[in-house]
Amino acid sequence: MAKNIRRIGVMTSGGDSPGMNAAIRAVARSCAYYNIECIGFYRGYQGMIEGDYEELNARSVRNIITRGGTILKSARSKEFMTKEGRQKAADVLKEAQVDAMVLIGGDGTFRGGKALSAEHNIPIIGVPGTIDNDISGTNYTIGYDTALNTVVDAIDKIRDTASSHNRLFFVEVMGRDAGFIALNSGIGAGAEEILIPEEDLGLERLLDSLERSRRSGKTSSIVVVSEGDKIGKNVFELAEYVKKNLPDYDAKVTVLGHIQRGGSPSCFDRVLASRLCVRAVELLLDGKQDLMVGFVNNKVETCTLDEALQSKHEINKDLLRISDILST
Ligand code: ATP
C-alpha cells in the first residue's frame, strides 16, 4: 500500500446513470475498509472548482445502493475545460488534502481527469458510468443494464396498446452516437426494426420490411430508433414518411426520454459498480494512476485512460442479423 494516499476524493460527472450511488458507496466503504478518508465532491468538476465537498464515511453512504441518480449530483462544467478552471480545482484538492481521485462518468469526464492529472500530477482512476455503454475497455458501463431494462419494460407496455389497435409505433431511445440501447432493447422487446447510428438501413428497406410485416399478418409493429440514427430523418419525420408511403399503417411516436436514466439500479449494475470501485480504490493505494477500470469477459480489468478514449466500443453487428431473423 503506497504510503502517500491518505485521502481519496470521488465524484460523479456528465450524464447521471443508475448505479452511480452504488459506485459512490463502494468507494467510501473501500476507503473505510483500508483506513483512509474519503471526500465526496458535489456536481462533478464544478463542485471541485467551488470547493463543494463533504467527508463520506461508511455510514454516510448507507441505503444508497438501491437509489437511482447520484447523491453527489452531476454537472457539466465549462470552467473546468479551461486551464484556469483546472488550476482552481487543483488548489481546492490541495487545500482539502485530497491525494487522489476516483472519477465516475463518461469519456468527457475521463478527458477532464487526464488534463488534471497531466497538469497537476493528481492520481486519477476512471470508472465508466453512463447509460450509453459507449466506452471502450469495458463490456458494460454502470447504468446501461438498468436503462436497457427500463426501455424493454416501456416497449412491452407500448406493444400492449399497439397490438390492441393494429398500430405501428416508433420508439425513440437514447444513444446519440451508439446503438447499444436500441439494438439490445429492440431484440429484447421483439421489435420489427431497429435503427442505430452505426448502420444506415435506408428508407426503402424500412418500408419493405414494414410492408412484409403487414402482409405476414402481424397485428402490431415496433420500430426502435436510436436518437442518433443515420437514416436522415428524426423519429417524427420517419413516422410521417411511413404514413405517407404506407397509408394502411396508423403510425405513432413515443420518445422515451429521461425515464431511461432514472430508477433503482438493477442487481447487475449494483454488482458492477461495487466491483469496479473496490478495484479503483485498491489501484490508487497500489500507486497506480491514469487508468480506467472495466469489466471484460466477466473479470475486472484495467486499461489506460488513453486506450479508453482512443478507441470506440463497437456494437456487435451480428445482433442486427439476429433481429432480422427473429422479426420474420
Ligand atoms: P456522458 O457520456 O454521460 O455525457 P461525459 O463524462 O462524457 O458523460 P461530458 O459532459 O462530456 O460528460 O464531460 C463531463 C465534464 O468533463 C464536462 O462538463 C467538462 O467539465 C469535463 N471535460 C470534458 N471534456 C474535457 C476536456 N477535453 N478537457 C477538460 N475537461 C473536460
From TrEMBL:
Sample GO molecular function, one term: 6-phosphofructokinase activity
Active site, renumbered: D132
Coiled coil (UniProt feature): none
Pfam families according to UniProt: PFK
Keyword set, alphabetical order: Allosteric enzyme, ATP-binding, Cytoplasm, Glycolysis, Kinase, Magnesium, Metal-binding, Nucleotide-binding, Transferase
EC class (word): transferase
Binding site for ATP: G15, R76, S77, G106, D107, G108, T109
The protein's annotated pathway: Carbohydrate degradation; glycolysis; D-glyceraldehyde 3-phosphate and glycerone phosphate from D-glucose: step 3/4
Keyword presence, Magnesium: yes
Sites where the protein binds ADP: R25, A26, V27, A28, R29, R159, G190, A191, E192, K218, T219, S220
EC number: 2.7.1.11
Regulation: Allosterically activated by ADP and other diphosphonucleosides, and allosterically inhibited by phosphoenolpyruvate.
Localization annotation: Cytoplasm
Keyword presence, Ribonucleoprotein: no
Chain positions recorded as Mg(2+) binding sites: D107
Annotated binding of substrate, by residue: T130, I131, D132, R167, M174, G175, R176, E227, K252, H258, I259, Q260, R261
Reactions this protein catalyses: beta-D-fructose 6-phosphate + ATP = beta-D-fructose 1,6-bisphosphate + ADP + H(+)
Cofactors demanded by this protein: Mg(2+)
Domain Phosphofructokinase per the UniProt entry, residue ranges: 7-284
Family: Belongs to the phosphofructokinase type A (PFKA) family. ATP-dependent PFK group I subfamily. Prokaryotic clade 'B1' sub-subfamily.
Biological function: Catalyzes the phosphorylation of D-fructose 6-phosphate to fructose 1,6-bisphosphate by ATP, the first committing step of glycolysis.
Assembly with partners or alone: Homotetramer.
Protein name according to UniProt: ATP-dependent 6-phosphofructokinase
Annotated gene: pfkA
